[in-house]
Automatic annotation (TrEMBL):
InterPro entries: Sec66. Coiled coil: none annotated. One of its GO terms (cellular component) is Sec62/Sec63 complex. The chain crosses the membrane at residues 6-26. Residues 178-271 are annotated as: Disordered. Signal peptide: none annotated. Residues 193-212, 231-248 have a biased composition (Low complexity). This is Translocation protein SEC66. It comes from Tremella mesenterica (Jelly fungus). Keywords: Membrane, Transmembrane, Transmembrane helix. GO terms for biological process: post-translational protein targeting to membrane, translocation. It comes from the Eukaryota.
Length: 271
């Protein structure tokens, strides 16, 4: 009888203990899943580079540290763009029930981490120069846009090769009349540019018309009397040198003769 009682008691004890251990482990793992989410973004390598430069034992120039901080801000700007694009899709999918709460929690956690990262970058920028924190993200945005444009331009040959490959495959199975014709559209300027061009053309036409009317008035108007008399009067340069010398000599002669006559008259009166 004693053996028959110990066996079921031992069985029940082992069963309850196993269930308790399983429940405890399951709850712990579930809690860890809720608290520890997988990061929404990959590892922030630019931040690690900046921190390693700050904590390096050898002296590092300030220009290199500032450049590293600017690259870190550029990475943050790219992440802001990605979160801005992902947020509407995640919200709509969560409302439809297509994604779980853990995905939304991961996204919210990534938003909080990004906000803390932005505050940290602004504070670090202000340590180098007061007020730089308000301008660093504007510069980082320009750098991110330039990098995005460069990537798009660099992808053009690859996209062109892919499209040419598709067209070559289509030519094998489709006749030439059914192939899509690639035509480059003529560039059309925007409306405000067209208005500016028309205004400039009208202004040029008016200026030309005014210039032509002034020229016609000058050609058709008769010359004035004063201007004609002034035009006929000889200039000193037109008088020949010989005549000028004779005129001056005659003038000198007349001036020399006049005082002699007056002196003769005075002598006659005295006599």
């Amino acid at each position: 009888m004693t053996t028959s009682l110990y066996v079921p008691l031992a069985y029940i004890t082992v069963l309850v203990t196993g269930l308790a251990i399983f429940s405890r482990v399951y709850r712990r793992r579930r809690a860890e899943r809720k608290t520890s989410f997988e990061s929404w973004f990959p590892r922030h390598h630019t931040r690690d580079t900046y921190i390693s430069l700050l904590s390096s034992s050898s002296p590092v120039p300030d220009s290199l540290i500032k450049s590293s901080l600017l690259v870190r801000a550029t990475t943050d700007v790219q992440r802001i763009w990605r979160m801005r694009d992902d947020k509407p899709a995640i919200t709509s999918l969560h409302q439809r029930g297509l994604i779980g709460d853990d995905t939304v929690s991961r996204f919210n956690q990534a938003e909080k981490e990004l906000e803390a990262e932005i505050v940290d970058v602004v504070q670090e920028a202000n340590t180098f120069r007061q007020g730089w924190g308000g301008m660093i993200f504007a510069t980082a945005t320009e750098m991110a846009l330039a990098e995005k444009t460069r990537d798009a331009v660099m992808c053009i040959p690859r996209i062109k090769a892919i499209e040419e490959k598709k067209l070559s495959i289509r030519r094998k199975y489709l006749p030439e009349d059914r192939l899509p014709k690639i035509t480059q559209p003529t560039p059309v300027p925007p409306p405000h540019v067209q208005a500016q061009i028309q205004a400039m053309a009208q202004a040029q036409a008016q200026a030309q018309a005014q210039a032509q009317s002034r020229l016609r008035q000058q050609l058709t108007s008769p010359p004035k009397v004063g201007e004609s008399s002034k035009g006929t009067s000889p200039s000193p340069s037109m008088v020949p040198s010989g005549s000028g010398s004779s005129v001056t000599n005659s003038a000198v002669g007349t001036q020399s003769n006049t005082p002699s006559k007056t002196s003769n008259k005075k002598k006659g009166k005295k006599k």
